[in-house]
Task: structure prediction
Amino acid sequence: MFRLTLDGKPLVLAKRTSLLDALQTAGIDVPHLCHDARLKPFGACRLCIVEVDGEARPVAACATPVHDGMRVRTRTAELETLRRTNLQLIARHYPKEAVLAEPLHPFHRLLAEYGVEAGGDVHRDLFHDDSHPYIGTAMERCIQCYRCVRICEEVQGQFVWEAWGRGEGTRIAPGKGGTLLSGGCVGCGACVDTCPTGALFDKRVTAEPDNWTRTSCVYCGVGCQMEVGRSAGRVVAVRPANSPVNRGHLCVKGRYAFDFNHADDRITSPMIRRDGGWEPVCWDEALDFTARRLQEIVDRHGPDAVGVLGSARATNEENYLAQKFARVVIGTNNVDCCARVCHTPSAKALKTMLGTGAATNAFDDIEATNAFLLCGANPTENHPVVGARIKQRVLQGARLIVVDPRRTELAALADVHLAVRPGGNVPLFNAMAATLVEEGLVDRDFVAARVVGFADYVAFVADYTPEKMAAVCGVAAGDIRAAARLYAAGRPSMCFHGLGVTEHLQGTEGVMALINLALLTGNLGKPGAGINPLRGQNNVQGAAQMGCDPASLTGAQSFKDAGPRFEAVWGRKLPASHGLDLLQMMDAARDGELKAIWAFGYDIYQSLADAAETGTALSRLDLLIVQDLFLNRTATFGTVFFPAASVFEKDGTFMNSDRRVQRVRQVLPPPGDARPDWWIIQALAERLGKPDGFAFDGPEAVWNEVRALWPAGAGLSYPRLDNDSPNWPCPDERHPGTPVLHADHFADGKAAELARIPFVATPEQVDDTYPLLLTTGRTLNHFNAGTMSYRTPNATLAPSDTLDIAPVDAAAYGLKDGDIVRVRSRYGHACLPVHVTPAMRPGQLFTSFHRPDLFVNQLTSSVRDRLVHAPEYKVTAVRLEKPDG
Ligand SMILES: Nc1nc2c(c(=O)[nH]1)N[C@H]1C(S)=C(S)[C@@H](COP(=O)(O)OP(=O)(O)OC[C@H]3O[C@@H](n4cnc5c(=O)[nH]c(N)nc54)[C@H](O)[C@@H]3O)O[C@H]1N2
Ligand SMILES: Nc1nc2c(c(=O)[nH]1)N[C@H]1C(S)=C(S)[C@@H](COP(=O)(O)OP(=O)(O)OC[C@H]3O[C@@H](n4cnc5c(=O)[nH]c(N)nc54)[C@H](O)[C@@H]3O)O[C@H]1N2
Ligand code: SF4
Ligand code: SF4
Ligand SMILES: [Mo]
Result:
């Protein structure tokens, strides 16, 4: 207990905090300039000085911890004089014009409050950078609080800003380059956000927002919370909000890439394809037309001739309605979503081995772990806020093992980087397991208590020694052993994995091989440990969890266990036939068995592998309903187009990577005739004569039905989600949530069984005709199908996908940066600009797939995961040709 007296008022604190925090808790306002709750105390501006009994001189409240019995005064005449003097020193170098121009700026108000005039000796020999699309500089307003330097270091981990010179001559400027970008800036905006004066500012924010709405990021599965500023009917600014996930931080996409919402080519009217072209129609006509065509197909070919694809970009409520529509209105289990192509392998592996198909631990465990095992994931680009947290933890001393064919940013920082050959995960993970067994690094107590099949596994894995596997996976035996030792020594060690593990012939099995490592070392069921897929889009975890999966119902519940409850609530028998997954739908469409697809918020043509095959399948459909913000590539084959409201234009919830359900709140009305996906689904259900069960008056009512059917989510009511985001399972409203799964038993109550995973090589191998191995993935500034990020100034930050190639290969082919080269695979070809980089190993190539016109998926193969059919985006044999050859 800390009993304090602050300006005569008592305050009792249970935990030790800084004195500044205590004053804020007590509602006592003390001026400060260098303080930011996201940063370590700095104590430099000397404005938060206070008098403490027993201290000879005033102390900086931000840098002073409270102690029991502390008596503090904050506003004595002496303190105010000192503050004024300090402000005068600061203001001497501060431009008066700025104060006159923006009198309401908090710093300028502070000057006015103390009667301090700015100006006198304003420095002009300062850093200036006009080249960044989002961040502007006005360094004459720099008061040397070092907040930009500190936040770039302590939160983002980019170390862009440096203090040059000393004393009066100190200047803040990038340390490593002449501009922000050449100095390594990744555009997170944290320095702008913390800057107290406007020396750094958001260039594109010209109007002060008249309203701020808290909501969830529209891009990735980290699930950052943000406040969106609106002015004159447009989104004009975004600032980070505090949440357990992002702790007041964002990345360049969440913070800045919102202009897509108001793009000129946003589709705002329903359309029907007539005579080869798109004709705008009213909703009545679009819905009647679609309902009639769907009904004809069901009548003629049966309900299983229709498939529904939910959207990892839409809300839980919308995905719940989509799968309910498929099962109740159409009467088919042909329902899936794009979780199929990324982490369905993870969900399958985790569910099979541990009982719950989701990340075992929460992001908060990043700060609690001693070692990271990062496999086939590139979080500093793809989950940047989590990437930054991992990077900080590593800078503080946690060990880092990276398994990735490329030298990613985190690989460059790793204790051990295992540059596995694409497709070599299973032999590599098995070899790590063999090392654990052979070198006595197994957690015997954990295995005895919670694992079965150990003896069989030991016999199996003996064939996979690092020495035998080195040539198979392309990693030196010594490095494999070093990685296994580091992982075993961490305790807790935390594994994160990405698509470099899942998007393979053995994707699911690759994740199972990883789970073996966690079981052998006891890295499950405790904080700072676990097996954690870094989920993709804002709501990919939710889309599948809501039941957009042919084989399971809402909450990943089985037909066998939960079917009767669903039938009771839905008032209808569940369809009896096996549903088709997305890839099976493509095969069935190609073979003429599937006649209609409704794809919302999913650009299947651009994003599925082997685009030629996808095109053939889509062209054979009788009805393709596309529901999106834009005419995406899939719309090439579309019959009807439904214009959807964006995430900024509707209410609902998303489910992030660490099992939190978070609110999405409407910032603006949708433009024109665009409507939320939930509205469109309900409207079509009504046209098909099934209004019962599709007459919800809004997302909250839909969510309450989800909670009634999904016991592990029952405690997550909208009122609770207003100020809390517990990790599910959260079975009732008082339950605190479950950050760590499997704490004392696995979900199905049994011990977990080690999986014996033999290595099966992909048929996609290099040969004399296709001698290079292409792997595909993502880059920081763009997002998946590019529909959104390419409609923002991120397109100037990264104008194109590039073909990344190792210097020796570039030399051998006579290629240099910017040359256009034709890449040809056994499936198709695409032209890409070359980027020569030592991050690539000889013989291997990498590209992202974001730019629609470059259409990289013309190259990728038809190989799929053996168990759940995710495409093998990560391995394609190719050759390089002259673009006109
Ligand atoms: N900026 C940005 N962020 C995104 C997205 C985006 O498009 N842009 N998309 C979101 C989505 S949908 C998803 S699913 C996530 C995906 O996020 P990640 O899983 O990080 O995605 P990728 O970049 O596709 O692949 C990760 C890494 O796998 C490596 N890799 C390739 N082959 C192998 C292999 O055989 N073994 C191993 N161990 N590694 C291999 C690649 O070199 C790459 O660095 O990102 C989400 N976040
Ligand atoms: N070569 C290669 N290809 C890949 C991958 C790879 O690693 N390599 N990764 C794969 C992976 S993991 C994924 S997840 C897929 C992603 O592929 P997609 O899911 O197709 O891509 P996204 O860009 O996430 O978004 C899909 C669409 O949703 C729309 N949208 C956004 N918000 C809303 C909304 O609220 N409602 C509606 N109706 N529409 C909305 C967008 O405009 C966009 O057209 O790509 C896959 N393709
Ligand atoms: S925007 Fe982010 S990365 Fe760039 S300088 Fe500021 S804090 Fe550093
Ligand atoms: S890390 Fe992901 S959720 Fe967070 S701001 Fe960036 S894109 Fe949005
Ligand atoms: Mo994804």
